[in-house]
Amino acid sequence: MALIFNTFTRVLEEKMRLLSITSVNCKRNKMYPIPRLRNPTWLTRKERAPIDEQLTSENREFLKEFVQDKITESTERAKTIVTNKIQWTPKMQRTGVIAKKIGVYPLWKKNGDMICTTLLQVMDNHVIRYYPPENYESPRQLRPRVYNKKGCLLLGAEIGDPSTFTKEYCGLFQDSGVLPTKFLARFFVSNDAALPLGTNITAKHFQVGNYVDVRGKTTDRGFQGVMKRHGFKGMPASHGVTKTHRRGGNIGGGGEKGRVWPGTKMPGHMGNRFRVARGLKIWRINTKYNVLYVSGRAIPGETNSIVYVFDTKLPLKKPMKELPFPTYFESENDEIFEEDLFDDEIHIFSSPSITYNEK
Amino acid sequence: MFSLITKSRSVNDWNKISKTLIALSSQAAPIEKSVKTKDTIRKQILEYRHVYPEFLPDPKIEFRNSIREKLERSDMVARRMQIDIPEFYVGSILAVTSSDRHTPGKTQRFVGICIKREKCGLRASFILRNVIDHQGIEIMYNMYDPTLQKVEVLRLEKRLDDELLYLRDALPEYSTFDVNMDTEILPEGTPVPVNNIKVKLKPRPWLERWERKHLKGVQDLGLPERFYERAKELDTPWEKYDLMKEYMRTIPEEEQLEIYGEVQSELHKLELQRKKIRRKRVFVKPTKLA
Amino acid sequence: MLLHKINSQIAQTFRIFEKSCFHTSSPINEIQKQTRLRVVDNSIIGKQAMAEGKPPKCIHVYNKTGIGKIGDKVLVAIKGEKKKGILVGLKQNQKLKVPKFDSNNLVLIDDNGTPLGTRIHVPIPTILRTILKEKTQAKGADYTKLLGIASKFV
C-alpha cells in the first residue's frame, strides 16, 4: 500500500515539475532561456493616497517641526560619516550621483572661444543601501552570466515629507537612518567603493577637467511622424503630390521579402526614453550650490529634470589623476575650496579682458 | 497657513530691499530721506529693466530655474566689474573696441548704430551697423564676450522703433556715421532723448515687408493700396489685449524687483563710478591763451 | 468683348509679377552657381563690368559643399571671360564679431593668387588673414597677396 502511495506521489511530483514555468523554459531552450523580468526590490509603490487626517493646525505644525528636526539630525549625522581613503587605480569604479539639469549658459575659453555648458546641480545625495556582489540579484538574468560582478549602491536624493510615502517605501530607508527621499538611483561600484549608509555625496565628488557620462530621460514628444522622429525628408509640397507631404513613403519590397522588415523606421512614440550622453567634460564646479558645468547642450531631458551623472566609461577619456575614492569627505583634509573651481582653459569672469599677444 | 508664511516672507524681502534702497538713495541725495515713498523706490528699481534688460531671464516657463539665474547674474556682474558696459538703447551710437585674434597685438574699433538688442543673460548680444566707404557693414557682438576691451556710447538716444532692421533697406545716409566721432555728453539728470527722425527707404524689393511691421520711424512707403489692405488683413490688433499672452511673454513686477534688488548694490556702485568719470570729462581745463 | 477683358486681366497680372518679384521666405543669401557678385577691386575688367551693369556671375565654387563662404575661391563669368576670384564679404549672416556686408564682394585674382587690381576700395574682414593663410599651400597659389592691396580692415 505504502509503496503504491510512494510511486503515486513521485509521479505527481514529476508531473508538477514539468508543469512549472521554469522547467518548461529549460526544456524549450536550455541554452538561452527567456530572461525573467523582476522588478528590483526597491521598486515599491511610492506615493500614498492622501488621507485627510483631521489634525488641528497645532498638531500639524508640530508634525512639520518634527520632520524638520529629523531632517537636520540626519544631515548632521551624514556629515560625520567617514571611511578610510583608498588608493584609486584606473580599474576601480566609483559611485555616481543624482543631479538636476538646471539650464544652459555659455563660458569662454582663454583663447576667446565660446563654449556652451549645461548646468547640473548635484542634489543632496545619500547612500540608502548597499548590496554586496553575492547578495545582489540582477532583475534581468542574462546569459552568459557575468562573473566578476560589482556591488550595487542605492542612492536617494531630495528628502520629502514622509507622510506622503507608503509604508514599504519608507521601509527602504530604515537601515540608513535617512529620511525617505523622492528620487532613487542605483550605481554599480567596485567592491572597495562601498560607502557607509547615510553618506552624503556632493559636487566635490567630481573634479574639474575630468569627463562624465550623463543619463537622463529624453523630452517626451508623444506620437510623432517620420519626419520629426527619424529626420526623413518628406515629399514635395507641389508637383502633383497629394496627401503625402510628410509621409514616409515605401516601407518594404515585394516578392520573397514581401513584408515589413523588423526595425523599419515608422511613425510612433518619440522621446521619454533613457539615453546617455557620454564623455562630457567638466569645465567648472560651483561648490556652494553644488553645480557642475558640463560641456554641450544636448543633454537628455528638459530643464529641471533628474539626470544621473557618473564617471565616464569611454576608455580614452578616463581620468589621469587620482580621484577621491570612494568619495570626497569633508573632514579628511582641511583644504579650503574656493566657491568656483575652473578648468585651466576657462576664462574667469572676474579676470581682465582677453588680449592676443604677438608671437 | 503656508500661504501666510510666504506672504510674510515676501513682505520681509520687500522691506529689506526698500531699506537698502533708502540707504543707497540717501547716499546720493540726503535731503529727501523721509519724502521718498515706497512707490518712488519701486519705480527706481523698475527703471533698471530699461537700462539692463538682459538681467531679466527668458520668461519661457520651461527654461526657468532660480539657481541657474542667480549664478548667471553673478557672472554677469563679475564681468561688468571688469569692463564698463554703459547704458545704451537701440538707436544709440556705440564704439566697440575688441581684441582680434587675426591681428595679434592690436585691437579693432568699430563704430555704428545699434539696430538690435536680443537675448538675455550671458548670451545677450547686439548688432552695430555703419556704412564705411559706401559699403554697409554690420557686426554682431556678445555683450559679455571677454574679448571686448571697451564699449563706449558716443551718442545716447532712442529711436521710435524697438528694432532698426529697416536701416538695411534705407538710403545709406541714414546709417552712415563718422568713425572718428566724439562722445556727446548729455547734461546730468536729463532723460534719454528720443530721435524722431523718419527714415526714407529705398524702392522695393526689400528684405522684409515693412508695411506689415507697424514702423513709426519710416517715411511714407509709397506702396499701392492693396499692400496696406493685405497688411490690415494679416494684422492681429487684438493681441495686445490678450492677457494670457502678455503674462507668458513678461516677467511679473514682483519678480523683477527681486532680481534687480539682488544685483542693485553692485550696479549702483558701477553707476557712481561712471558718473565720476563723466564729471571729469565734462570739466575741461582752460587752455592758455597765446 | 470678353476676350478683351481676359486679355487685359492677364496683362495686369503680368505687370504685378514684373513689379513685385516676390519671395515667400527670407533669403539665405547663399553664394552658389548663378549668383551675381560685386567686384570691389580696381581691375580694368572688373570696373568695366560693374560700370556696364553686368556684374560677374558665379559659375563654380571651389569647395566641397558648392556654397561659397568667406575666403572661398570662385570661378566667375565676367564680360564673356572666365576669371577666378576670392569672396571677401558676404550678405549672409556671419559668426559673432565677423562683419556682414550689404553686398557679396569679390576680388579677382589670377591662377597664382595675384590680384588683378591694385587696390580694394571697401573694407575687408580681418578673419581673411587667417583663412587665406590656411588656404595657401607651400607650392600652390599665394592668396595672401590680396591682403596687401586692402585699404581697410574691419
List keywords for this structure.
A: about 350 residues, alpha+beta, Elongation Factor Tu (Ef-tu), domain 3, 6-stranded antiparallel β-barrel, 5 helices, B: about 290 residues, 5-stranded antiparallel sheet, 5 strands, globular, Ribosomal_uL14_sf (chain C), transit peptide (chain C), Large ribosomal subunit protein uL14m (chain C), ribonucleoprotein (chain C), mitochondrion (chain C)
Report the oligomer: heterotrimer
Task: State the separation between the terminal residues of chain C, measured CA to CA.
Answer: 63 Å
Sheet with the most strands, sense and barrel status of chain C: 5 strands, mixed
Main interface: chain pair and counts: A-B, 31 and 32 residues
* Principal-axes shape call of chain C: globular
Uncertain runs of chain B:
1-11
In short:
The complex is a heterotrimer of chains A (359), B (290) and C (154). With 359 residues, chain A is an alpha+beta fold. Chain A has helices at residues 2-19, 21-28, 57-80, 167-171, 226-230, and strands spanning 97-108, 114-122, 125-131, 151-159, 181-189, 200-201, 211-217, 222-224, 268-270, 274-286, 291-295, 306-311, 340-342.
Secondary structure topology:
The complex is a heterotrimer of chains A (359), B (290) and C (154).
Chain A: H1 2-19, H2 21-28, H3 57-80, E1 97-108, E2 114-122, E3 125-131, E4 151-159, H4 167-171, E5 181-189, E6 200-201, E7 211-217, E8 222-224, H5 226-230, E9 268-270, E10 274-286, E11 291-295, E12 306-311, E13 340-342
Antiparallel strand pairs in A: 1-2, 1-12, 2-11, 3-4, 3-6, 4-5, 7-10, 7-12, 8-9, 10-11, 10-13
Chain B: H1 2-28, H2 38-46, H3 48-51, H4 66-82, E1 93-99, E2 107-118, E3 125-132, E4 135-142, E5 148-155, H5 225-234, H6 243-249, H7 253-282
Antiparallel strand pairs in B: 1-2, 1-5, 2-3, 3-4
Helix pairs in contact in B: 1-7, 4-7
Chain C: H1 2-20, E1 38-39, H2 44-52, E2 57-61, E3 73-78, E4 81-89, E5 100-101, E6 105-109, H3 127-135, H4 145-148
Parallel strand pairs in C: 1-6
Antiparallel strand pairs in C: 2-3, 3-4, 4-6
